[in-house]
Amino acid sequence: MASSSSSSLSRVVVKSSDNNLFVVNKKVASQSQLLKQCIDNMEEKGTNDVILIPLSNVTSNILTLVLEYCEKHADFADDDNNNQELKQWDHEFLKKFDYATLNSLTMAADYMVTKSLLNLCCQFIADSIKDLTVQQIRQIFDIKNDFTPQEEADIKNENAWAFR
Amino acid sequence: GLIRRKMNNKAVAIPVLPEHLIEEQILPRLPVKSLIRFKSVSRSWLSVICSHDFQKLHLKFSSSCQTQAITLKSHLAFPSCLLSFDNCNNFKNCVELEANFRALNLPNCYGPPYSCTRLVSSCNGLVCLCFICVCFFLWNPATNQSQMVNLPDSCYHMSSVLLRGVGFGYVSSIDDYRIGFMLGDFDHNPKVRAYIYSFRAREWITMTSVDYELCRCATSCVVVDDTLYLSSATFGMLRLNLVSGQVKLFPLDGLPNFKHCKYKLSRMKGCLSLCQTGYSNKDGYKYVSDVWMLKQPDKWDSWEKLFSIRGDMYLHYVFEAGKCLVYREEQLKLIDPYDVAPEQFEEGDFDHNPKVRAYIFSLRAREWITMTTVDSELCCGARNCVVVDDTLYLSCVTLPLCIPGLNLVSGQVKLFPLDGLPNFKHCKYQLSRMKGCLSLCQTGYSNKDGYKYVWMLKQPDKWDSWEKLFSIRGDMYLHYVFETGKCLVSREEQLKLIDPYDVAPEQFEEGTTFCQESRKGVELRDIYQTWSYVESFISPFGAFTSSEDEDNSREIEIVESSDI
Fold it and tell me: Residue B175: which residues within 8 A CB-CB, separation 6 or more?
């Protein structure tokens, strides 16, 4: 509880980069350190107005997902016994996204400082790319091969066992 | 521009993750093998993956994300395994290391490969293996690299059974990995030397002499920061400082009920922790493991009890983070005592059975009557066995206050208490059969001289009917007590049979000089098992010609299954 005064707010409004508004419960918003920081700052000033937080880097479809995640985790925040259930939910949550969405979600989690979501996304990406070939990695991360053919062959030969 | 992006004008381009997320959040979560492959992605990835900072970050991630265990399956020719677990702490799979990582080109000594290998420790992804009395291996299974470290020259003449306590770990204060071990040196009997190897200096550095008795019963070793802790069941805990080479002894009196338990050391959250295991008398010798932590190093009364694991679960290992590898019945499982109460043990799936089964063969029936499954703790460290009438008795170092007995008729295993014997906890004991009764030779060590008392259980099943029969002087080694009460002893290079009822053992006369001519052959101390033998006509094929009610020819065997 950042503030227990009567003026403390129960809801905030978050605006996506494409100008859609989302009304968010404060407890849910606090899952993001960025939103929590904004709320705390405003409450210190003692404002009674509804806070509007614009997020210039997050589109509404991605923000919907981030908020869905925050809502679930806020629900479980006081409940230590359902850790397994939450882990299961996390896994199911990410499974349905394509690669582009996953990347956008990761960047949004980074921008909104939602550490657990960032960890979740990065672990998910890491798990899904660990068995890919070098060529596939270059495609996914859009990386240009800047080795000469000889250099690349040398590196591969040095570590031949890792390619089996 | 570490990561060059293709300038792509198409609006539908997949959003590309920024460099800092890739380098600081995604790459450090990848397995080492993948990263080694991804070195050839681009110059920038190569330089990131090879950088010291990245490798440190990777270690940080891998030690916080995963819980894996490495095991060396028993002392036989079994490969070592990497056990891994899923997010819900269920056992996931078991990878045989040698099959997947062939860098470990272990020398083929003493028969089958790996037969003398022993897992010392695993620290920061480095696995230290000990080839008993040959060398150490420092092995990184993930990068497929290994380094061999030969023992110091002065060790080569020593006997392998005298290795007492080996530890390997990272000493952060000097940024060095060190191996410490203690080895008995019979040329300077009864001393033990402590050796320390520095991977930075690439040489063996300190040598300290330690009283042999202090580490004779060493059961468990762990390195925490700059100290190798060695549990010595009889005296407390030895600490070998891996920087200074000093050895100190610390009492363990602070822990309750200590003398009824054995203890295993581990490292948890950067502190020394201790798992005290024992059988409580209350509910039929139920197995209990209490985990304690030494909150402040150097404050030996700062032990704090963290949690206990009770009942039918056996605690294998406590991880740094506090998770525990336990098994119950046929199943192996990772539990987090802080997360889920151990009572809520869920079913894992693991079929390597760390139990011990008792097998009985009947010569009359000509078949194996397989029987009881026994908790492997009951016979872990069994030293010697003897059959008296219908029971096979085992003496176990790990259970200093009781004797497990396997009934050869019913197949039941029972624990017999030994509290009746005086000073018992400071001794080891050897079982034998004498005049039809179970007898026990208690060997202890006082600072003045050693002593050996031979006791006899006058009435079977009356466990307070021990009677002291005679004692044998300290400088004589007792090999065997014969049925008749005669004793096979040795002193210096001589072997002799003495009858304690006839001649006082003090009047030891010159006996047979053993192997004096070929000193390089079998030496007296190499004799470690002796049995009495008589000639007879008893057939090993089970042809019973005598009366039906005589059924005392039996053979038994205890088979240890994969001991994890």
Answer: B200
- Measured from the Cβ of residue B107, the count of other Cβ atoms closer than 10 Å reads 12
Beta-bridge partner residues of B496: B489
Per-residue pLDDT tens digits for B42-57: 999 999 999 989 988 9
Q: What is the pTM of this model?
A: 0.61
Q: Which among A87, A122, A123 is the nearest to B88, CB-wise?
A: A87
The residue segments making up the domain with residue A76 are 11-154
User: Rg of chain B's alpha carbons, rounded to an integer?
Assistant: 27
C-beta atoms of A146 and B4 within 8 A: yes
Cα distance between residue B450 and residue B453, in whole Å: 10
Residue B30 contacts A, CB cutoff 8 Å: yes
Rounded Cα–Cα distance for residues B252 and B240 (Å): 16
Nearest CA in chain A to B32: A162
The residue type at B346: E
Tell me which residue in B4, B33, B40 faces A134 most closely, judged by beta carbons: B40
For residue B296, CA distances in Å to B172, B271, B300 come to: 17, 8, 8
E-only strand ranges, B340-482: 356-362, 367-374, 382-388, 391-396, 402-407, 413-417, 428-434, 437-445, 450-457, 466-473, 477-481
C-beta of residue B405 within 8 angstroms of C-beta of residue B394: yes
Residue B556: phi and psi, rounded to 5, are: -135, 165
**Helices and strands (H and E) in chain B: how many:** 6, 37
For residue A79, the domain's CATH number is 3.30.710.10
**Does A87 fall in a domain?**
yes
Q: Identify which of A45, A57, A61 has the alpha carbon closest to the alpha carbon of residue A100.
A: A61
Helix, strand, or coil here: A101? helix
Minimal C-alpha gap between B85 and chain A (Å) = 14
Cα distances (Å, whole numbers) of residue B285 to B344, B513, B558, B560: 22, 47, 21, 21
CATH level 3 topology of B69-298: Lipocalin (2.40.128)
Mutation pick from A59, A89, A142, A154 vs chain B, by most beta carbons of B within 10 Å, is A142
Does residue B334 sit in helix, strand or coil? strand
SS3 B287: strand
Neighbouring CB atoms inside 10 A of B122's CB total: 18
Name the 3-class secondary structure at B92.
Answer: strand
- pLDDT value at position B448? 46
**Cβ B403 vs Cβ B394: under 8 Å:** yes
User: Is there a contact between A82 and A90 (Cβ–Cβ < 8 Å)?
Assistant: no
Q: Which of B335, B331, B334, B333 is nearest to B350 (CA)?
A: B331
The boundaries of every CATH 2.40.128.630 domain in chain B are: 69-298
Where on the phi/psi map is residue B22: left (φ > 0), alpha (ψ -120 to 50), or beta?
alpha
Count of C-beta atoms within a 10 Å radius of residue B39: 21
Strand extents, DSSP E, chain A: 11-15, 21-25, 51-54
- The Cα diameter of chain B in Å comes to 106
Report how far residue A153's alpha carbon sits from residue A164's, in angstroms, rounded to the nearest whole number. Answer: 15
Domain count, chain A: 1
Distance CA A88, CA A72 (A): 12
Segments of chain B with pLDDT less than 50: 1-12, 73-78, 102-103, 106-115, 159-161, 258-260, 284, 342-354, 424-425, 446-448, 512-523, 543-564
ipTM: 0.89
Instruction: Look at residue A4 and tell me if it is in a domain.
Output: no
**Which pLDDT value is given to residue B391?**
80
- CA proximity to B170, closest of B72, B80, B70, B270: B270
B244 φ, ψ (degrees, to nearest 5)? -90, -20
Query: How many Å apart are CA B476 and CA B56, to the nearest integer?
Result: 56
Q: Tell me, yes or no, whether A67 lies in a domain.
A: yes
Rounded to 5°, angle at Cα A116 from A113 and A122: 90
Three-class SS state of B439: strand
